[in-house]
Fold each of these.
Amino acid sequence: MRDAKSTNLGEGDSLAKNMQRATLHPLAQFRAFVALREKGQGDEEIAAAFFVTPQLVKQRLKLAALSPTLLELYAEDEMSLEQPMDFTVNPDHERQVQVWEAIRSSWNKEPYQIRRMLTETSVRASARRAVFVDVEVCEAAGGTMLHDLFQGDDGGWLKPKQSRPKVGNGSKSRSTCLLATARVLGRLNGNPAPMTDDEGAAHAKLFAKYRTLKEEYEGQDQFPEEIDARPS
């Protein structure tokens, strides 16, 4: 009596042989890989059945997970194989379709342009801002990582969760990934806090002293050493 694993392996071998005999659209292979994965087969088992590498299996499974709209276009040969590859960098089906609609009539359908549009609300994981926030902290706060399985991506892209952080619970996952990494890692513009009466009086006193020294030594390149070293 064959166990479930042996049965699945036999199905994989049979499916691979049938596909080799027929001239099928590559999309059929993508879906065959998905069917075997759903039956519990791992990447290495699927790869062995089809005489391909586990990395290619990962790539095909990611292609099969694209928006059904894009897969239909690919099945009808309205997209080249390279174009679906570019869209796998972002799993958001709605965004995938939006980008396709934006570029389908454009002269610029280069891979870098598609990836740029699909990752424009993210930042490379190797960027100093992302390193400071800490990718693991951001993932724990609901952020996700985007990866390109077809080209080098320098560690991928960090996509913070777009939500309002709750205040008053410690670091709260580093303020929910530093305010969703400054709302997709943009620039933070701050306003100085107002000074207290004591701070304002101390500031006025120091500023008056500075003006006196500046007038006294006007025309010199710098204050004398004994003046420069004097404590406030």
Amino acid sequence: MRANTERTPAVSGPTMAALMLAVFTVSIGYGVVLPLLPYLIERLLGAGREAAQVPRHTGLLTAVYTLSLFLFAPMWGRLSDRHGPRGVLLVGLIGFGVTMLVFAFVESLAAIYAERFTSGMFAAAVTPVAAALGNFAMTEHGRARRLSFVSMAGIAGFLLGPMLGVFITRFAADLFTLAMPAGSVAIPLAATALLAFLVACAVAFAVPSGEDHDWSQETAGAPVDKTAWLVPKLLILTFIASVGIGVFEVGLALRGKQELGLTPYQIAAMFTECSLVMFVMQAIVFSPWVKPDTTRWLIAPALAVLAAGLFLVPRASNFTLMLVVVGTVAASAGILSPILTYWISAKAGSAQGWQLGRQTAAASLGVTVGSAAGGLLFNVTAMPGASFIVTAGLTMMGFLLSLGLPNLLALPSGAERVAS
């Protein structure tokens, strides 16, 4: 396999910073809404709502956003490969900001569904393109660290999003003496829109236009890796892990609100813990002391731990036990996500935007299925915790699928790199 790092010079520091800010922005836009969704839906439906309506709409609204990512990420990745990344990133960030700003003050359930879909469509232009551009480095270790930086920027956005959504709303209400209704997302969405516009300006100045680079020929002439058939298997594992994450995210908000009686601050704290643990685990996995090639051995154990954590979620009966389970699930997810991204990139040849767009699509489809299942199966009385149990079983199937991967993913002897 000819490493893609041989064809493009390393990305500059300002460019890398702009890419990380772009991913951070779309992630914070997702994280800022999720903990407030049950409260927002409850208010919009009114007093005459049925008990099952809140979890159903919570799951479906989350699924609509990730479904949009699934539909559009490969398209944006292909456009980036052919025409360069800057234009795609700018369209994504500006469109994301406009949709969040327009819908920040809309108070109808149908409009919220439209906002989730359109925001997801533009967010799909940011993450895979930033990862593909950030992938360019002179060594395998440098490439792994850059991919990890982009992923960690996304986690940092999700880490800060839930708490910021709660605290920005409370701060604005106190400062301007506003009577904000429960579950209001107007102020957090408007703040995120402003951030998106500012980051778009940074991208316009820091990311190369690509006018001196023939992107279309690079994609057309991409070398075909003899082990390219491994990518579908890695995409399946990405999908399975993402189903677990989708079920977990929706179930965390619903279980905290409806079964454990937790406050919005406690629910936001669990989401924050989840993102913080994922952030730390990624920093460890792709630290200078860990060779990127050895990360292939961590895929199967991480899937096994994820399955165990999902199985234990409905058995955590209080806030403290929930924090323990959240840490377990987050640790395994924090290991899986960047490792799968790294190995898909390693097998992508020249078509980085296309393959990483496909991974974003697989991950988004998984979160879509998981989010919908988390909401629709939440009130199944015949099997308490049905969504978590079913997803734990699916994750164990992924564990079995991954058992032979370490040997299959082993890099050819000529592909080894000296760590930077």
Amino acid sequence: MATKIRLQRHGRKGYAYYHIVVADSRAPRDGKFIERIGSYNPNTNPATVNVNFEKALKWIETGAQPTDTVRNILSREGVMMKKHLLGGVKKGAFTAEEADKKFDAWMKNKQVAVAKVKEKLASDASMTAKQRLDAEKAANKAKAAEVAKKQAEKLAVAEPVAEEVATTETETSVAE
């Protein structure tokens, strides 16, 4: 039986998320599967990936073939790197301890890179929000100045009329 590690689509139209499953290659995309080993949500920024590392490594080592997308996901999570290092241990290129050290160093570098990306996204979002707030404050000041100008014009027009009314009233009272 040829097994594949592939994505199984879930979610609604326009908002898909995926389960990472091991399935018979002849089974339909969203049909029967052998085991679910993780999930992938591309709708978040950055994409959310949850993979059971041990299960994925076990299936890769037993010969399950990942699809291209799943291969990229597993590479980012370190499953393919671990498989590569374990192959070197089997061939005698280095020891298991050296392989673990190399893998731990790779994971630390990967986590630092992901943390930097997340920090940059957060700072960009806060900077954009700050720029929007500043633009909105400037627009509100401009509107307030325009309203104050109109009010001043109304008062300027109303004062001469009020003075004329007052003078006519005083003239009428003097005439009486």
